[in-house]
Design goal:
The chain has about 300 residues and is α+β, with helices and mostly antiparallel strands. The protein is built from eleven helices and 15 strands.
C-alpha cells in the first residue's frame, strides 16, 4: 500500500489519483465481487478525468469520490470497498457531506439491499444507457449455435480474406501502433466520446503504467494493426474496456471480439461471462451490443441519503 494510506477514519483525506495509486486501486477492485464495470481497475483508471475521481484509503477501505454518473456537477461516491462495515462507512461519508445530501452513484443492483436499513435513502435507477451488457463468454468465443450464425459468417469471411491474421500482445511499441489507429478512427464529438478517446489515448501513450493491470491484444492484418482490445479478468468475468477496429476491414470487429474472448478463455478456463459495458445511449452501439445476444443487462442506481 502507498505511504499516504491512513489508519483511521478520522484522517480520511481525498487526493488526486496518479499512476502511483494504480496498484492500490487494482487491489481493492479485486475485493469487490460486483460484475459491473465500475468495480474494476479499468472502470476507474480510464475514467479518472471524466468523472473527476479522487480517492482516499482508511482502515483498509478505498473511497472514491467524483461526479454523479448522470450529472457530473453533483458530487457522488462509489460504494466503499474494503474492511470497514457498510454502516460505518456511510456514517463517515454522511458526516463529510453534511448538510448536503450524500449521493452514491452507479450502485449495482445486488448492493441495494444494504441501504434497506438506512433511513431517508432514496433509490433511483440510472437510465438504460448506463446498464452493462453481460454475455456468455462461450457464445462469443466459440460462436456456436444458431444465434451466432451471422457473427460466425462475418468471422469466416474475415478469416478467408485474411488467413494470416493473428492476435499479439500489446507492448509499448505495439501500443504506439494502436494509438495511430485510434487517431485514425477519431471520436464522435460528444463529451463522452471525447473523454473516452482521451482516456484510451492516454492509456496507450503510457502503456507501461497500465500493463500490469490490463490485458491488451492487437489484431494484426497484413502486417499492421487492424484493431485492438483491452480488458481484464475478475472472478468469472472478462471485462472488455476498449475495443477499436478499422471499419474498412470487413468482419474485423466480429473477429476481434471472438478471438479476444477465446484467448481469454484459454488463459483462464474459469471465465463464464463477458461484460462489454454500456451503450451510452447510442442507437448504433446499442444495436451492435444487442446483436451479440446478451444474457442480461446489469442496471445501476443512484442512492441519495438525506
Amino acid at each position: 500500500m502507498n505511504s499516504y494510506s491512513t489508519t483511521t477514519l478520522q484522517a480520511l483525506d481525498f487526493k488526486t489519483i496518479t499512476p502511483a495509486d494504480f496498484a492500490d486501486i487494482a487491489h481493492f477492485m479485486r475485493l469487490s465481487d460486483s460484475r459491473t464495470c465500475d468495480y474494476t481497475f479499468g472502470g476507474v483508471a480510464l475514467w479518472i478525468n471524466h468523472f473527476g475521481y479522487r480517492m482516499a484509503i482508511a482502515d483498509n477501505t478505498l473511497y472514491i469520490k467524483g461526479g454523479r454518473e448522470d450529472d457530473l456537477s453533483v458530487p457522488a461516491y462509489a460504494m466503499p470497498v474494503g474492511d470497514t462495515a457498510f454502516s460505518e462507512a456511510m456514517t463517515l461519508l454522511r458526516d463529510i457531506e453534511d448538510p448536503a445530501p450524500l449521493w452514491l452513484s452507479a450502485v449495482p443492483e445486488d448492493r441495494l439491499h444494504l441501504f434497506a436499513s438506512l433511513p431517508n435513502a432514496t433509490v433511483s435507477e440510472l437510465g438504460r444507457e448506463w446498464s452493462d451488457y453481460l454475455y456468455d463468454i462461450r457464445a462469443i468465443g466459440q460462436l456456436s449455435g444458431g444465434a451466432m450464425k451471422k457473427k460466425r459468417n462475418h468471422v469466416n469471411k474475415f478469416l478467408a480474406s485474411n488467413p494470416h491474421s493473428t492476435l499479439i500482445n500489446i507492448d509499448a511499441p505495439v501500443a504506439g501502433e494502436c494509438r495511430r489507429l485510434l487517431h485514425q478512427l477519431g471520436h464522435d464529438q460528444t463529451p463522452t466520446g471525447i473523454s473516452e478517446f482521451t482516456a484510451v489515448d492516454q492509456m496507450l501513450a503510457n502503456w507501461r503504467d497500465y500493463a500490469p493491470y490490463l490485458i491488451g491484444q492487437a489484431l494484426i492484418v497484413d502486417g499492421r494493426v487492424g484493431g485492438f482490445s483491452v480488458g481484464e479478468t475478475k472472478g468469472d468475468t472478462l471485462h472488455v474496456h476498449v475495443e477499436k477496429c478499422d471499419h474498412t476491414i470487413a468482419g474485423a470487429n466480429e473477429a476481434l471480439a471472438s478471438m479476444f474472448a477465446a484467448e481469454m478463455m484459454r488463459r483462464d478456463p474459469r471465465l463464464l461471462y463477458v461484460n462489454r459495458q454500456d451503450d451510452a445511449g447510442d442507437p448504433g452501439l446499442r444495436a451492435s451490443k444487442e446483436s451479440w445476444r446478451p444474457l442480461r443487462l446489469l442496471p445501476k442506481f443512484n442512492v441519495c441519503l438525506q
